[in-house]
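Sequence design from tokenized structure. All designs in this work follow the same two-part layout: the structure record, then the generated sequence. An example of the structure record is given first.
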């Protein structure tokens, strides 16, 4: 039996004193004896300790070990946790009164075969607490902290238990609420208008545990809304249908909240699950069915009318990101019986590594200003073009829908394939064609100088078909195409306003990727400079809008269950106002333009409550968007990159007639447009206040921290994979909207504009986004250990519906602060409330933390207690250096005394009300020796207090722990004994007859190697001497099974048309599916083989092992049409490699001789000749001379590549080039390094029957949408099939910009996929090169190989710099252009300061005041990726260039 170490109350052992000094009542050695009597009395006599009573209990099959137990007098029960080697772990209940044990839970059996209680025999359940008589809480320091309702568990209410039933933390809803506007004709009221709502919801679990609130919904807005001048239908958009996921039957109720704008959330609804399940499957407003439950999606829906009396929710609840229950805790305690405290915390996840693509692309927001019925407005439903087969011209087909109205403008732009514009044709619908689309389309067709046809398609669309000119008819001899099809509608005064959430143009956003575990715990967000997205200016977009396109290439992190994207506010514009105006030449001076913006005045006069207004502030700027000629019939003239400072804004009152008031905006004169150009024309302006990147705090200028936000999206992770790997973000912090405003030239004319504004409506405050909960880069610190911290729950209120035991606010944390527990004393191993003090047992100290009271000292240093509102107050540490180490299993308590072992001192300790003391008595040396031996052996010291005998008992850990890795099962073997044996104490004593056993005395691992060819049974023996025992010998029996040397099928690709006499090497073949070496040999017909691509070529037999690869080679014959073969045999498999030379070919030469008139030619009689003699010319036709020449062919043979080997190509169109790469059986991240150079190419990698990498087209941006060479790229793809969608180009569905793929980045790059299995061992690389003159290269690295790329740049010191000019890469400009000053920045050199750390960091460019001008984020200067020219202020004669990015870095610096 285990050796017991006891602390005696009276007479006992004395091993410290000399024999002559041992007291009379003590003994020198007295093991397994006590002097305090037995249950029969006998006090004072030496008696044997009584044994425990055996209580029968049924245990599951396998090896079982009790790893924790606790008893509770209040319920007269005890609960134990039993580890089972086959995972059938038990929770057992002992009834004190009936003396019976009941298994109340058996893992796997009661959990549907799921391992929901993962006990580990190395981690004891040391903390078991009973709260409110029915909630059992525990922790083992291995898994998450647990708590379960014993009443439900014992009654079977759970039916099949889940992991969530056991955990303290309760999952919050992870499915985002859906919101949709509907019109309820049965409700003659609209209480939604003028308010924009967001929604969130929470789960209420079976025991009234409240989850954290869900991700906040997107802010649904009505797409169109009547202006104040038009009557509003009260039934239009008068209800919101909200959809919520109701989770599992563990959720008994759902609470729903809403907010208007950014105000606090208010409670709107609570609904029982039982009620939800009775509802119909769909909402039907006509039948007044306003609630529904769809079982196919598990979604509850209801109609929200904003017609209730609602109460606000404390923001501390709705702001809670998740319940901050740690992933692990060392100990837990019930404080005051109604608060759960957890100590020694491990929490958080590390920041994931990501591989993503995040970029800005454009789309059509469809904000045409239309009447209330949007189907009425004239629109281009679709258009497409294709080259007519066998010709050089193209045929375009344009489908028009809707109703043409007077003033609508048709527009078509023609260009060559490089985008050089030939002609632009427009046609304005006349009054006679108003409402007659057919007549308008036919008139437009008749105005075009091209062959056209007009017809009605599908009874819906009036269709215009035209044919472009041939090359001989174009101005430059190029091929002509339709570049743009557009409409400009002349609708005005409709009374309808359309508004959609969008992204700010001419700005940038910081995107981020978030992950959460299944309970809602955050991972640190993923973001860096590659997540910065810069949007184009509105002039560059020309009516389109920007959206963020994202793609995910990496695998999600372990433990992540959900993911989504988030966004910052725009980085550049604090305010914005879009207004029309006209240049006032009488007020314009040589230093500024003066614009009359009276359309704003007239708008405010018409709508006095409008939110449109402008108040000048220093630093304001103005962007010129476009202008239209005074007659308002010409197309817009877009003004790109014209952004100037606002000088002033004045309201000018006429001195003669005070009723005449003008709004005058004064701006700096721009360099990109002249006064003459703008004079008399209507100009659209954007006036804005730039965002400030710094703020002054206590006299110090500091950068403002960027706040990021969730955006109402969430995706599940299923089977360790992202369910959605690409998507778009369209909703941001502005609204793209229609606005009816007076014309700048003619104030009596009302124009319909598409503008941007932070307000949803022009008529009430509505500057609200769809953003949700805020995030920041450092809101999560990764995986951290709070060794000396304690967190706690909210309270449980008995006999109420308030159960706060699962609510953990992040603020409820104690430790590492002033006067709090410190990690200087190691981990907290145990916390225990004793009266009004929490005793904290750390590794090196014992501390005392008052509970709801504070300790104060009076002038005489006497300790006094005072009430406190804080749960935990200042700690007081015991003065002695005594702690618990890692011996928390030694903990025991009774009668306000706490007992434990200090493993560092190797002595037992008592922590009582009178202090902390060593209690080894006269056995100090004995305890130091024995406990040190136990501690060094890595065994646990288990403590228990016997309240009958008033004894603190200690025992060594039993040997049962070895069962964790015991290789035998009770089905074949009977376990007789268990031992703890140091590895060095074991020795082999007898070998078997069919093999040899070896033993490692350090690791304790024995290895048996059978002799070749042996099968059947064998054995060997080993011996050892257990502690206090005799030499023991044990036998290991084993069975030898025949190995498998028959590999997978091997196949060589034969070669035809081989060159004569050349050496040919086969494709490599991988040898797998063998578990012993397999013999390998080759036939003697001149063939050779090589293993793993290294070493000599062999002809003699050898062996290969699993995952080797083999190549063979032969020399081709020196004769044509001749085959040479060799056969390779591996184990049971073989294949023949054959190389066949090419056939001979014949060349025929024909000679024609022309004879002058005066020449006579004699023809040999054996030659057949026809002679025709003309009066002036004689021609003799000579029979051809036939020459036979044998020519060896020139061929290119592509074999399989081995991973790590480069591949490259230069030449013409190849769509695609397909190559196989052998990856072997290794697993892990597999890197593709690629370079498409300049001409676009697309790299696709297939593995395991699926596409694992798709780079998209990479190359120069001149081939991207809007680039100068876009047309030639599109032309090369026309008629080809997209390898992913299988659609034929052009494909407007997949690529809405122009029907062709975008260029997703520069030519070079790196990406990867995870090879998650040993097989398949090859990948296929397909490179799509649709254009001639292409060149590309790639290397597929082997799995697990990482590649580091080093870039060398010129390093410049911190100092002042002068920025001069830039080169626009999208226009094909280069460093030389930048050096020559092709595009000056702000018209003159600008002085800035920059810090240097290679690359040059020039963030200060964005925050410098130049004169009175705030330099915005590359406002009116380069776009991301363009080249900047600059010089140091102290040496301006030496200019440098470098590539600028959107976040302010300049890289690849080189001198001009």
């Amino acid at each position: 039996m285990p050796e017991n170490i006891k602390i005696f109350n009276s007479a006992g052992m004395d091993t410290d004193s000399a024999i002559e000094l041992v007291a009379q009542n003590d003994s020198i050695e007295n093991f397994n004896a006590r002097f305090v009597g037995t249950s029969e009395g006998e006090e004072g006599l030496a008696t044997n300790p009584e044994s425990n009573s055996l209580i029968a209990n049924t245990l599951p099959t396998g090896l079982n070990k009790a790893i924790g137990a606790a008893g509770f007098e209040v319920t007269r029960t005890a609960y134990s946790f039993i580890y089972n080697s086959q995972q059938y772990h038990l929770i057992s209940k002992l009834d004190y009164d009936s003396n019976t044990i009941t298994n109340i839970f058996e893992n796997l059996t009661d959990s549907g075969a799921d391992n929901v209680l993962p006990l580990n025999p190395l981690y004891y359940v040391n903390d078991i607490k009973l709260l409110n008589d029915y909630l059992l809480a525990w922790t083992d320091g291995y898994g998450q902290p647990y708590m379960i309702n014993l009443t439900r568990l014992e009654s079977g209410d759970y039916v099949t238990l889940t992991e969530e039933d056991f955990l303290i933390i309760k999952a919050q809803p992870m499915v985002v609420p859906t919101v949709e506007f509907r019109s309820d004709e049965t409700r003659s009221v609209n209480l939604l208008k003028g308010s924009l709502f967001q929604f969130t919801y929470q789960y209420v679990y079976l025991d009234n545990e409240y989850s954290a609130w869900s991700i906040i919904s997107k802010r649904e807005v009505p797409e169109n809304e009547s202006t104040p001048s038009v009557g509003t239908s009260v039934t239009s958009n008068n209800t919101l249908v909200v959809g919520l996921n109701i989770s599992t039957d563990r959720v008994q109720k759902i609470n729903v909240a809403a907010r208007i704008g950014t105000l606090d959330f208010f409670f709107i609804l609570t609904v029982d699950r039982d009620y939800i399940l009775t509802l119909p499957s769909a909402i039907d407003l006509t039948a007044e069915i306003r609630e529904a439950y769809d079982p196919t999606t598990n979604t509850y829906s209801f109609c929200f009318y904003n017609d209730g009396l609602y109460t606000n929710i404390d923001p501390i609840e709705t702001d809670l990101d998740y319940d901050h229950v740690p992933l692990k805790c060392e100990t837990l305690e019930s404080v005051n019986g109604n608060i759960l405290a957890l100590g020694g915390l491990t929490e958080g996840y590390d920041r994931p590594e990501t591989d993503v693509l995040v970029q800005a692309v454009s789309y059509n927001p469809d904000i045409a200003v239309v009447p209330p019925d949007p189907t009425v407005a004239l629109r281009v439903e679709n258009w497409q073009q294709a080259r007519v087969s066998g010709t050089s011209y193209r045929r375009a087909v344009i489908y028009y829908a809707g109703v043409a109205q007077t003033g609508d403008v048709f527009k078509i732009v023609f260009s060559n394939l490089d985008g050089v514009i030939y002609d632009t044709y427009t046609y304005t619908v006349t009054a006679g064609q108003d409402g007659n689309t057919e007549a308008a389309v036919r008139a437009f067709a008749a105005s075009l100088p091209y062959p056209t046809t007009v017809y009605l398609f599908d009874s819906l669309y009036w269709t215009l078909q035209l044919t472009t000119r041939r090359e001989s008819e174009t101005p430059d001899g190029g091929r002509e195409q339709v570049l743009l099809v557009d409409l400009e509608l002349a609708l005005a005064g409709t009374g309808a306003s359309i508004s959609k959430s969008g992204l700010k143009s001419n700005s940038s956003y910081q995107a981020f990727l978030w992950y959460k575990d299944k309970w809602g715990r955050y991972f640190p967000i993923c973001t860096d400079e590659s997540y910065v997205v810069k949007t184009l200016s509105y002039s560059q977009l020309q009516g389109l809008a920007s959206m963020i396109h994202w793609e995910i290439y990496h695998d999600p992190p372990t433990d992540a269950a959900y993911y989504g994207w988030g966004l910052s506010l725009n980085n550049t514009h604090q305010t914005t106002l879009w207004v029309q105006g006209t240049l006032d030449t009488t007020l314009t001076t040589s230093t500024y333009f003066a614009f009359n913006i009276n359309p704003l005045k007239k708008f405010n006069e018409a709508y006095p409550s409008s939110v449109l207004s402008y108040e000048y502030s220093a630093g304001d700027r103005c962007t010129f968007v476009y202008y239209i000629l005074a007659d308002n019939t010409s197309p817009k003239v877009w003004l790109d990159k014209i952004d100037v400072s606002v000088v002033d804004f004045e309201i000018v009152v006429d001195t003669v007639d005070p009723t005449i008031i003008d709004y005058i905006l004064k701006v700096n004169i721009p360099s990109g447009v002249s006064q003459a150009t703008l004079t008399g024309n209507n100009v659209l302006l954007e006036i804005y206040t730039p965002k400030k990147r710094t703020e002054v705090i206590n006299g110090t200028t500091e950068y403002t921290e960027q706040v990021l936000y969730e955006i109402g999206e969430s995706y599940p992770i299923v089977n360790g994979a992202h369910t959605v790997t690409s998507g778009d973000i369209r909703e941001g912090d502005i609204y793209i909207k229609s606005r009816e405003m007076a014309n700048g030239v003619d104030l009596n004319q009302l124009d319909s504009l598409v503008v941007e504004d932070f307000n949803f409506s022009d008529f009430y405050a509505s500057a609200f986004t769809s953003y949700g909960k805020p995030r920041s880069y450092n809101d999560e610190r990764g995986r951290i250990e709070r060794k000396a911290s304690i967190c706690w729950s909210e309270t449980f209120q008995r006999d109420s519906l308030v159960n706060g035991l699962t609510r953990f606010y992040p603020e409820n944390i104690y430790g590492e602060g002033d006067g709090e527990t410190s990690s200087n004393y190691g981990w907290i191993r145990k916390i225990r409330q004793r009266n009004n003090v929490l005793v904290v047992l750390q590794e090196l100290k014992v501390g005392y933390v008052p509970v709801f009271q504070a300790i104060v000292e009076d002038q005489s240093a006497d300790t006094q207690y005072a009430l406190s509102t804080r749960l935990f107050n200042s700690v007081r540490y015991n003065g002695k250096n005594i702690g618990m180490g890692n011996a928390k299993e030694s903990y025991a308590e009774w009668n306000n005394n706490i007992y434990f072992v200090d493993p560092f001192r190797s002595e037992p300790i008592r922590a009582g009300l009178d202090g902390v003391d060593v209690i080894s008595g006269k056995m100090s040396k004995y305890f130091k020796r024995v406990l040190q031996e136990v501690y060094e052996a890595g065994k646990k010291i288990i403590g228990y207090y016997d309240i009958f005998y008033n004894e603190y008992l200690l025992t060594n850990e039993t040997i049962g722990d070895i069962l964790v890795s015991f290789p035998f099962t009770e089905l074949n073997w009977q376990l007789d004994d268990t031992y703890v044996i140091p590895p060095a104490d074991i020795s082999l004593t007898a070998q078997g007859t069919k093999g040899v056993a070896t033993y490692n005395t350090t690791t304790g691992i024995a290895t048996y190697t059978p002799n070749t060819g042996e099968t059947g049974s064998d054995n060997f023996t080993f011996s050892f001497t257990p502690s206090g025992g005799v030499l023991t010998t044990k036998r290991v029996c084993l069975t030898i099974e025949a190995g498998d040397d028959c590999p997978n099928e091997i196949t060589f690709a034969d070669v035809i048309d081989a060159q004569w006499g050349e050496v040919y090497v086969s494709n490599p073949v991988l040898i797998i599916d063998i578990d012993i070496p397999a013999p390998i040999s080759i036939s003697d017909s001149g063939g050779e083989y090589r293993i793993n691509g290294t070493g000599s070529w062999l002809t003699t037999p050898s062996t290969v092992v699993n995952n080797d690869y083999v190549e063979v080679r032969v020399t081709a014959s020196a004769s044509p049409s001749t085959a040479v073969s060799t056969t390779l045999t591996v184990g049971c498999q073989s294949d023949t490699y054959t190389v066949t030379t090419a056939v001979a070919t014949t060349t025929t030469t024909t000679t024609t001789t022309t004879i002058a008139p005066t020449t006579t030619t004699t023809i040999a009689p054996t030659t057949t000749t026809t002679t025709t003699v003309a009066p002036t010319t004689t021609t003799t036709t000579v029979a051809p001379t036939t020459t036979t020449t044998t020519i060896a062919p020139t061929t290119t043979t592509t074999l399989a590549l081995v991973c790590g080997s480069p591949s490259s190509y230069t030449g013409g169109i190849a769509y695609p080039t397909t190559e196989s790469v052998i990856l072997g059986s290794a697993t892990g991240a597999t890197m593709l390094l690629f370079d498409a150079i300049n001409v676009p190419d697309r790299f696709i990698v297939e593995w395991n029957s699926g596409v694992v990498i798709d780079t998209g087209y990479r190359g120069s941006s001149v081939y991207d949408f809007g680039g100068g060479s876009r047309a030639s790229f599109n032309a090369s793809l026309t008629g080809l099939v997209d390898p992913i969608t299988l659609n034929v180009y052009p494909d407007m569905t997949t690529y809405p910009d122009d029907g062709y793929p975008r260029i997703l980045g520069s030519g070079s790059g790196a990406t990867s996929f995870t090879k998650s299995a040993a097989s398949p061992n090859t990948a296929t690389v397909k490179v799509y090169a649709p254009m001639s003159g292409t060149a590309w290269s790639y290397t597929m690295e082997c799995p697990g190989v990482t590649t580091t790329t080093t870039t060398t740049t010129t390093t410049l010191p911190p100092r002042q710099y002068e920025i001069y000019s830039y080169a626009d890469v999208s226009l094909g400009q280069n460093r030389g252009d930048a050096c020559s000053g092709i595009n000056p920045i702000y018209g003159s050199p600008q002085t800035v300061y920059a810090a240097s750390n290679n690359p040059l960091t020039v963030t200060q460019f964005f925050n410098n005041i130049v004169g009175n001008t705030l330099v915005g984020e590359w406002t009116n200067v380069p776009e991301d990726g363009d080249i900047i020219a600059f010089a140091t202020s102290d040496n301006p004669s030496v200019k440098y260039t470098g590539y600028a990015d959107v976040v302010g870095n300049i890289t690849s610096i080189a001198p001009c």
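The longest helix spans residues 924-936. We note this feature because it recurs in several other targets discussed in the main text.
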